[in-house]
Write a structure and sequence with these properties.
The protein is of the alpha/beta class and 416 residues long. 38% of the residues lie in helices and 15% in strands. The protein has a six-stranded mixed beta sheet with strand order 4-5-13-10-11-12, with helices on both faces. It has a four-stranded parallel beta sheet with strand order 8-7-6-9, with helices on both faces. It has a three-stranded antiparallel beta sheet with strand order 2-1-3, with no helix packed on it. The longest helix has 24 residues. It binds pyridoxal-5'-phosphate and zinc ion (ZN). Zinc ion binds next to loops.
Length: 416
């Protein structure tokens, strides 16, 4: 395996055992725990000064803090996304600055590209011929794209409710698309998960790039935090609000914030805030209950149009909750109506396009501001995890509903 200088192994987050990355492609063989890339930080030959001179703009700019060197990367220039000033939102929230980290500018339009770039690099290093995963949609599309880039076959298991764009592009990239809609199913991610698990049992040689099965997706996504810290000149923001499903991005960003702090690049951790939709908020509920892990929702209980965060059983919730508490962040859930209104608000006030899922971070930040969580001097970063045009159906439908309501109100007003 071609690994980077400081990468010393995979540590199980549950039993603490360290494994050789060449031997372990997935979860801990002893206890089933999540494996997390570990580094010898004394051997990380990188500093803010060295970074300032570096031309590489993709996420591989931070390769010294990734498991694989840039030369080995399966890459399409993912990362290096803009951190866009949102003065109108800052005014409306009563804070100094609101910045939107715009992950819509990635090759397949979401931050899932960072995770799949790292995981697909690992798949190639393991000599895999076929990769597989189940996904709510965006990770499947990203996997199809990166598998195409690496010359690997891919099997992508999506629930029927996944968006048209995600399904269509998965096939355009040449992956085998499995739309999972069993009789008596609910078309949630769990249905796709069951079909994926059955296929993996049949094909032990497939490499999984599923959430928190491969040890590398959160590792790829941690570059979002390294980037935004560098973009802020290593001044830590007062809040990062993140639309949370499985929590891969949040766990990864927190890991990067801990690393930057430990390396002396920053003075503080970055307060991480979980934003979810009220119709599927297991992490927010656990946070509010003071619990260390979530209670899964039944698939039938899921009630949100935000596909990317419709995750009723996020297995890594202990890591998410620990990240939130350790960083002194928080958690917030808002209604679909507030979320979709927020997406429209951003598009109209700032011109930026945020997806329906991502807008949970915007409406969540408004709710946190209302609760007095932010001060007038604060810098708040919103993660726009994906492009607005991935979720046009939900946004357009909401606009239609608002117009119908407004017309009804007008009609009522003329009658009286
Ligand atoms: C996958 C996804 C999320 C949630 O990601 P996690 O890191 O698993 O919590 C949020 N937004 C979008 C657009 C996504 O595709
Ligand atoms: Zn273990």
């Amino acid at each position: 395996m071609q690994t980077s200088e400081a990468f010393v192994g995979l540590d199980c987050v549950d039993c603490g055992t360290r494994f050789d990355p060449a031997e372990e492609p997935g979860r801990c063989p002893d206890c089933g725990g999540i494996l997390d890339p570990a580094y010898d930080y004394d051997r990380v030959d990188l500093s803010p000064e060295r970074l300032a001179d570096r031309e590489e703009e993709s996420m591989w700019r931070y390769a010294e803090l990734l498991p694989f060197p840039a030369e080995a990367a399966v890459s399409m220039g993912e990362g290096g996304t803009a951190l866009v000033e949102c003065p109108e939102l800052a005014d409306a929230m009563g804070v100094e600055r609101v910045l939107l980290k715009d992950e819509g500018r990635n090759p397949t339009g979401t931050f899932k590209d960072r995770g799949q770039a790292a995981a697909m690099t690992a798949a190639v290093q393991h000599g895999a011929g076929t990769v597989a995963l189940n996904s709510a949609g965006n990770a499947g599309q990203a996997a199809a794209a990166y598998a195409a880039r690496a010359g690997l076959d891919a099997h992508v298991y999506l629930p029927k409710r996944a968006g048209f764009t995600q399904k269509a592009m998965t096939e355009v990239h040449g992956a085998e698309l499995h739309v999972c809609d069993p009789v008596g199913g609910t078309s949630q991610i769990g249905d796709a998960g069951a079909a994926y698990a059955a296929a993996m049992d049949e094909h032990p040689d497939w490499y999984s790039t599923k959430t928190f099965v491969t040890p590398y997706r959160h590792e790829g996504k941690k570059t979002m935090a390294l980037e935004l810290l560098e973009q802020l000149d290593w001044e830590t923001p007062d809040a990062v609000v993140y639309p949370t499903g499985g929590g891969v991005g949040l766990v990864g960003m927190h890991k990067a914030a801990v690393e930057a702090d430990r390396l002396g690049w920053t003075d503080d951790l970055v307060p991480m805030y979980v934003a979810q939709a009220e119709g599927c908020a297991p992490v927010v509920e656990a946070y509010e209950a003071g619990a260390d892990e979530h209670e899964p929702l039944a698939d039938e209980e899921v009630d949100t149009a935000c596909n990317g965060i419709a995750i009723p059983d996020p297995g890594a919730s202990p890591m998410i909750l620990e990240a939130v508490r350790e960083s002194d962040g928080g958690a917030v859930a808002t209604s679909d109506a507030a979320i979709l209104d927020a997406a429209i608000e951003v598009a109209r006030r700032e011109g930026l396009e945020v997806g329906a899922t991502c807008a949970a971070a915007v409406s969540g930040a408004f709710e946190l501001a209302e609760r007095g969580e932010f001060g007038p001097e604060d810098t708040v970063v919103l993660l726009n995890t994906g492009a607005g045009n991935k979720d046009v159906d939900a946004l357009r439908a909401h606009l239609g509903e608002r117009e119908a309501e407004a017309e009804e109100a007008d009609a009522d007003a003329t009658e009286t």
